[in-house]
Structure formats: C-alpha cells, structure tokens
Amino acid sequence: MRALIVDDSRFVRDFLRGLLEEKGIECEEASDGKAGLSHLHEGDPFDLALVDWNMPVMDGLDMLKNMRAEGYADVKVMMVTTEAEDDFIIRSLDAGADEYLMKPFDNEALTEKLAMLGFVEA
Amino acid sequence: MDELTREFLIESQEGLDRMERCLTDLEERPQDTELLGEIFRSVHTIKGTTGFLGFKRLERLAHAGENLLGLLRDGKLSANQAIITGLLHLMDALRGILKTIETDNKEGEGEDAELIGRLHELQHPEAAVATMNAKAAAASSANAHTPAPPIVHQARSSVPAIPDPETAPAPVDVRGAVIDSKPPADAASESGKPKTITTAASDSTLRVDVILLNRMMNLVGELVLTRNQILQATSLDPNLTLLSRRLDMVTADLRESVMKARMQPVSNVFSKFPRIIRDLSQALHRKVRLVMEGQETELDKSLLEAIKDPLTHAVRNSLDHGIEPPDVRIAAGKDPEGTLKLRAYQESSHVIIEVSDDGAGIRVERVRAKAIERGLIAAERAAQLADRELLQLIFLPGFSTAEAVTNVSGRGVGMDVVRTNVEKIGGKVEIDSRAGKGTTLRLRIPLTLAIIPALIVRSLNQSFALPQGALSELVHIPPERASAAFEYMEGTPLYRLRGQLLPLIFLDRLLSPGAGSTSLASEARAERDNFIAVLDADGRRFGLVVDGLADPEEIVVKPLSSVLKSIGLYSGATVLGSGDLALILDPGSIASRAGVALRSNDEGHAEVSQEEEESDVMASRYLLVEASERRAAVPLGDVLRIERLPLSRIEYIGYRPVLNFDGQLLPVEDSGGVLAAAGGNPNAQVTVVVCREGTRHVGIAVSHVLDVAAGDELFEAGSQHRASGVTLLNDQVTGIVDLGAVPPLPLNPQITSPQLTDWTTETVA
Amino acid sequence: MTTRTGLTLRKDSASTVILEMCSVRVGQTLFGIPITHILEIVGGTIPQAVPLAPSFVGGLVHYRGDVLTTVSLRQLLGLPATSGKHDILVLESASGCFGLLVDSVGEVLTVNAADHEPNPSILDERRRTLFDGAYKLTEGLLIMLDPERLDPMRLGAAAA
C-alpha cells in the first residue's frame, strides 16, 4: 500500500509520514501540486494521495482536478486542510476528493478517516 | 527538543524570512497577488502546523494575521503603510515566540491582545483610519511628515519575488531584525543537540549537520598537509611528479568542493537590510533607495555570521551620518532620495563587501577637530596628517562624528567595532570618502578561515607562520647593512623605512628574553641576513625582525591548547609542507605585548610628510627580482604570487615556455635566461613571479626575489618628462619589466582567466 | 580512533581484581598508566618547542590532524631534559587529548588491585600531586600516574 503526501510544509509531511509508516504504509512526498502530479506520472502507482489545499506553484484543488482529468480514478484522495469553510470542502468533494482531514489532526483522526476509505481497521 | 518540534521551528523561521522579503517588496507593489499569496502562505503554514504541537499563543497570533492576509490576498483590502507596519509587527512577534520555543521549549508568557486587536482593526480600513487620525491629532504635527517608504531596488537580483526555497536563508540566520551575533554553535549546545543547517525543502538538496561539515573541512585540511608533504618529498623524483601532480589537483578540487558546501550567498545577510533601512529611514526622516548587487556572491558560513554585525553598523552609519535629510539634499542640489548601495564581489581569495552612500561624506576637518577634542591625537600632529590618514582616525575607539546623539548609532560605537570584528576574521576595512559626494566602506573578507596564506619565517632555528593578511612588505637587511640599519632610541630598536621610523621587534629576543645580552645578540645579528616583516595589525604598524624567510605556504590553522594560547603570542599551529610544526604568530598580540602603540598616536612628524605624497602606495612599489645576475623591478600591484617549482613543471609550446596551472596555461617570460641557465636539469628549482597583465596572467622566470621596495620616479635630464620603464630602487636605477610585452600564447590568448586562484596561490601582500 | 586494547578489568576470582597498566620509564623509575586512558603510543618523535611556554610543556606534536600539546614527565619531576627522540603516550582527559613525553614505553603489566598502596607521606609536595600511589611488583614498585592530574590545562592552572 502506497501513499503520496503532498504538502508544502515539511513539518506536516514528516508528521504524516510518521503516522502512515507506523501503519505499514509506504510514503512518497511532494511539496506542491505540480510535483505531486509528476510523482503520479512516474514510478509505482499509489493507492492514496493526501493533499494539502494551499500550496505554491499548484494548489491542492488544481492538483485534484488534474488528477481526475488525467484518469487517476483509482487513487483515493484525502484533502488535508486547515480551511474549515464548508465551501472549500464541498468544492473539493465536487472535484472528486474522497475524504478530507482537518489540521491539526492526531493519529486517531487520521486512522478514522483512513478506515472510512477502507485502508485500515478502525 | 524532539525532531518534529525542531522541524517546525526551522520551517516557520524560513517562512518568516520569506515573509520579510515579500513584505519589503510589497511596499513597492502593494497589489502584487503573488507576493500576497506568499505572505499569506507563510502565516497560514505556521497557523496550520502550530496546532499539532499545541502552541496556542502562536496559533492565535497567526490566526489573526491569516484573517487579515486572507482579505488582502482576495483583493478585498489593499495593502497600505499601516497594514505593512502591522504585518511587520506580527512577524516580529512570531519570531519572538519561535525564539522562546527554541530556547525554552515553551511559548513563554506574553501579551498579544493589543497586536491581535490591531490586526483586527486593520481588517476594517475605515475604523483603522479613524483610529490613526485620532492618534495623529493627539500627537504633534511632526507626524504629518512621515517620509515615503524606501524603494528597494535589486540590481542583478538573485532573489526573485517568490523566493526560491534553495536560497532561503538557513534558520540559524533568523534572529529578527536586530542582529544577534551569537554563533549558531552556542545555540546548538544550549539545546543540547547539534544544530542542522538547512536549505528549504527541495528534492535536490539535503541538510547536513554543521559539525559534520566542519569535520570534513578538518579532514580536507589534513589532506592538504599530506599533499604538501608529498609534493616536497617527490619534487626531486621525476617518476613521481606526474602522480603527485594528479594528487595535487584532486586535493585542490576536493578542498574547493567541501569549502563550497560551507558557502552561503551573502543574500542571507543582505536580505535583512531592506527592513532595517525601512525602519531607520522612517525613524531618521530620510529617503533612501537601497541598491543591492552581487547577492549571489558566496562566503564561508562562519564568516558570514561574523560580518553581520559590522555590516549592520556600517549601514546604520550611512543612514545616520551619511545620507542627509531630503531638504538638505535638495539644498545641495541632490536628488532628495539618497542611494545606499550594498555590493559584494569576489576578488581573488577575498570577498569584498562595499557599503556606499551618496551622502554628505566625511569632512576631514571635522574628523581632525573631533580627534583633537577627544584627545586621540595632538593638534600639531593632526595638522600634518593627510586626508587619507585623517579618515583612518574614525576607526579609533571612542570616535564618532555624529552631530547629535541618536538612538540609531549612538555615540562612540561604530567604526572601531566594525574594524575590530572584521580584523578578527582576518579581514581588512578600508574607507573612502569625499565631502559632499559620499562615503564607501569596503570590507575585505578572506574566503575561508581554516586555510590562510602565510609567510614562513625562521627564528631561533625554528619556523613560524606569519599570516599574510597582516604583512605589508618585506625588507632584506644584508649582514653588512645590519649595524647601520638598526637604530636605537633609548634602547628601542627602529628602522627608517622610506623616512618613517618603524618600531622593530626582534622575534628571537621576544621569544627568548633571557638569552644572552643585547650587545652579543646584535653582534650575531651583524653577521647574518636579517629580514624585516613590516606588519599592520590592529592599527599598529611595526617591523618584525626574523633570521630567515621560507616560501609562503597555504597553512591549515590548528587550534592550540589553552595553556599555549594563554602565552598570548600564538594564534594556532600548523604543519608545514616539510612536515615540521610551526606556531602561527599573532601580529596584534605581539605588537601590544611589545608596547607598540596605535599607529595614529605614535607617528612622528617626519614620516607623515613622506606618506602624504604616496597617494597610491601600490603603484610606486616594486618587487625587486634578479634574473641571471640582472636586477629588474616588477610593479607590486601586478604581482599575484610567487611560485617556486621544479623546472620539470615548465612545459613548452614550440619554443615558448609555459606553466600549466590547473589546466590553465600561462606564458612564462624568460628574457633573463633563467630557464635556459637551469639547463636540462629537471630537478632544478625555478622561481616564477605570476603577474596580472590586463585580463591575462603571465609568469616571469627569475633567479631570486630580493626585496619589496618603493621606487622613486626618474626624470629625463633637462626635461620634466618622466622616464618610462625605469625606476630608482634602493638607490639603483632599475628596469621595470614590461608585462605588456610578453607575447600571447599561440593557442588561445584568453586561456588564463582572471580567476586563477586556488590553494596554491600566494598573494603577495 | 581509540585503541583501547582489551579489557582492563576482569575478575579472576571473587577476591582478585586484575588491572592492566602500561609501563613507561623516565630516568630509573618505572611508572604505570591505566591503559584505558591511553589512546595511542607514538614512538620516536621530536616535539616542536614552544618558546615562552610553561616549563612542563614538552612541545607540540602532530597527531591525527590535531596539534597536541605534550607534557614532559622529566620536567615535571625536575629531571634534566634530554634532547632527541621521545616516546609519547596520547592520553585522554576530561578536557581533551594531550601527549605525555617519556623516555621509553615498556610492556603492558597486569597488576592486582589488592597490591595498591597510597602515596607515602614522606613524598614531596609536587610528587604527591602527580602520583597516584604505587603497585608492589615482585621486581619493584610501579608508580601510578593519573592522566587527569597530568592534563596541561590543570598543570597550567596550578602553575598560575
């Protein structure tokens, strides 16, 4: 099982990687949406992408739209964001996100969301 | 502190650095959405990540900022002076808390309500204006003349509007706008863990522990030593020459690579100045345009740290004493907006950093008056000082030309601190100023600390290393001249150097005070060669008398144990190419120990008038060389270094002798027939003086380097025409080598670039 | 880097504790230094003199990229200096490494902890501060040196 972490914060990437690897999930990282897409284009396929919203170069929403447009339908996308606005959550779900996770989160919150996607036991 | 918290600190500090740069750009382009997006993201990221670690204070502050920034980014609000000031305060407050977390692992106590309140207020422009008006009304009318913000121009900028993460400064640089000179090593030991330097997240870079880098630098130093020893040991064996030359090149490359890893662009320091200048120009009611050049120039990390303070002082001085208030400038027919220029560039093994302004300049009469008033110099002596020398007085402790005591540069601190700090790292400070036109302060910083060029001198049958940074010239005293050359004033030895009385320190006498009587020692002195190394250290000028000179070397500085450091004469030790250990002499300590006074206090009258005529010292000094028993002079300003090498290193293109120097060929002029005289013996050693000629380098083959001396101009009899091609050196008419006459190589005349500098180079002081 | 050869402390039986000491000779006297404190032995070097250094400083030697300050045991004991090559023990103390200049380095001796005697009271002041008692060997005494007490920094502070 492989996950792609897309976030411009090294801290968040490290934090997520720590939690995911504990669950036996292999991780790759990218620091913006564009870099995230190239990770998808190259190398082994991913099962899950955890995508930040506000990033330089290409934001999370655009990355998500591109992903879906390019046909990466079987990669589950979890938007990771601080934005509590319903507006954003709705926009990203409209664009094809499968789940969302609000920062700051802890292991419990992450596990719960991963379970919703069927990746881990709750 | 755990890894995640450290990660958080590093990232947040990087974000704030970006925010700072963007904010100064924002003053110029308040509508730039990219800038606004970048600033928003910096604060947003802090807010987003701080929640993970439970830093509530930080989170509340960042949240308040994020709300304001969100409005700006979405175009619902446009940035004005008040908002930018508010955001700068936010940045400072965030930095303050991060710093507390770094040291205490806690956010600390603090009242942020006022700042949060102001950030809220700023979200509603009408309300904010009302508040400001109320404040303005309450305050004096002077507030109405708020100066326009400085415009930041970045000539040849290497920092784009959206900073490249790779050029983002390392977190150790983040100390807020007030520069903290504490070295990062201290901070690291406080937190009990080694600190890592970092470049921002990027797939092609990785973070390396500074301690590891220092270790690598040490090992490379070792390799340089071993290389030097092998070069010496194999110089007589032609079979090994090829191998050792290869080792030589690889070592040089490796050293350069490791040094590069320690290099950081000066933009890391320069980037602090837009903010400092913005604040200062407002406080001082000046209009200032900042121009920065050469920010990509790189300098060793530790040196960069060390020049932060001096540079800040210099910049403050320029604003405080240099650039005039707009009305004064207008009255003087100048642009009301002054220009402050920060410029960095590399010049052989030094980085030059210039701080120049087009302000009032320094009026030497005022310097003279002030120096006399402060008792730094006697009035009659001051009357005889040349302008250039008067300017140097501002580097004396306790000197300040400020008309008023301001809270910016204060009184009496400044230039002496600048000089002390720069000299501490082996650099030099020069100042040029023209009344009414402006002032340029030039810091010459060595590229690296760990390896320095040094002259190896002999005394007491032992080798000592003398840093070339302090060396200004060498004087050879042959045995027959010894008794006349050394003069005594009440037991104090002196030497007449071009008419100036130079205090002398005999190294052997200094180091073995008990040995023999003075008369015995001077008898022995008269029987052998003596050399005077003329040194400038900490503002003191003196001659150090040694028994012998060996070739200059690049030495690797090794620290001494505290027991030996406390002797107070040695700054370290080194291993020479011969394998011998040599102590590194500390010219400043030697001078103060021997009681050599500060230069300006000690100068007699006679020397001054002589010095006045020498407007450009280098131009009239020559390296006196001998080639096959003929003497010739090479202009010292053109001499890059002196190489002693086996004849086998000289190769031929056709009949033209050339020297292959790390793949760069330089033509070797042998009009003296030195190479020919050495015959076919490949083991013979020859000396090549490497000179600059226009944009190329040329070598002059000589038998010996005799002296450095000042040349007197000669005039053609019966005319006022200056005789060209000859000079009077040590009372002898001596021909000057015409470097321009050395024909270019047939291959490619541009092959020797001006950057022909690496570890082997010995810059002639 | 460190060349700590073997265990220095082993229990042969319930009652005897065996220690390993490096023996060195200065003049006629045999001294011992616990081998746990010895990083390396460098033979036949000529230290570089340091003018104006305190008399106990035996000079500088080049050791693995560093310049080590050496302490001359001869000088410390007030014996006349000898010129030429010396053996040097590279010792580790709390404040770092330093070299101990001796006439010659001998073999490693094993001693029984029970054979240790404290410094006798008739020893002069200087020797009392340098020595750390002695072991009674069959062929004579092995006078113990404590590297911490020979540290040039400590000697320098004492001399000041």
What is the spatial order of strands in the main beta sheet of chain A? Answer: 2-1-3-4-5
- The first-level CATH class name of chain C: Mainly Beta
- Count of individual beta strands of chain C: 12
Gap between N and C termini of chain C, in Å?
33 Å
The total number of structural domains of chain A is: 1
* Main sheet: strands, sense, barrel of chain C: 7 strands, mixed
**Any idea of the CATH topology of chain C?**
OB fold (Dihydrolipoamide Acetyltransferase, E2P)
Counting structural domains of chain C, the number is: 1
Under CATH at level 1, the class of chain A stands as: Alpha Beta
User: What is the N-to-C succession of helices and strands of chain A?
Assistant: EHEHEHEHEH
The gross shape of chain A turns out to be: globular
Provide the CATH superfamily of chain A: Response regulator
Mean pLDDT of chain A: 86
Class based on secondary structure composition and strand pairing of chain C:
mainly beta
Most residues in contact: chain pair = B-C, 28 and 22 residues
Strand content of chain A: 15-25%
Helix content of chain A: 40-55%
- End-to-end gap of chain A: 17 Å
